[in-house]
Amino acid sequence: MLTGPTNAKFLRGTLHVALLVGLLVAPVAANAAITGWGPQGGFGLSPDQIVVGLHVNAGEIAPSVELRGGADVGFGDNVTTISGNGDAVFIFGSDSPKLTPFLGGGLVITYWDFSFDTNIPGVGNVSASSTEIGAALVGGVDMILNSGRRLTFTGRVGLGDVHDFKVLAAWMF
Fold first, then answer.
1. Domains in the chain, number
2. For 52-108, what is each residue's pLDDT tens digit?
3. What's the pTM?
4. Domain range for residue 97?
């Protein structure tokens, strides 16, 4: 049951992330076709977290340039994060039809919900939350499987008050 100030902050943060991702992606996605979507998972550093979510490829917006987006939830390091991102990536040509490298960047919005025990008698647990906007440099490789499905491996370097680094793998449908 979602009640109390902590859960209300969590819901507001989730709404902030969803609205911003929608505002960033909707205008461009209206002119692009979804070329793939699927679950993603990995880990983030600073904070150190396990991350799970959804990855979407919204198709080409220019020759060799794709719009990609995602949303994920991170757990660990006494903080829960909810992040959304919209990226433009340049797709490089490759000698291998099954491996395609990419580089790019984009905007990130992250909701942070901190909670930790101070170990101070009479103080107990402390919690706080915040919603932050930053950017990320993105690089990785797409791998086409024999089934025709795609695995995407992505590294993200955060700029601003977002994860410092993330490594994600997505299985695209």
1. 1
2. 999 999 888 899 999 999 999 999 999 999 999 999 999 998 787 899 999 999 999
3. 0.78
4. 4-172
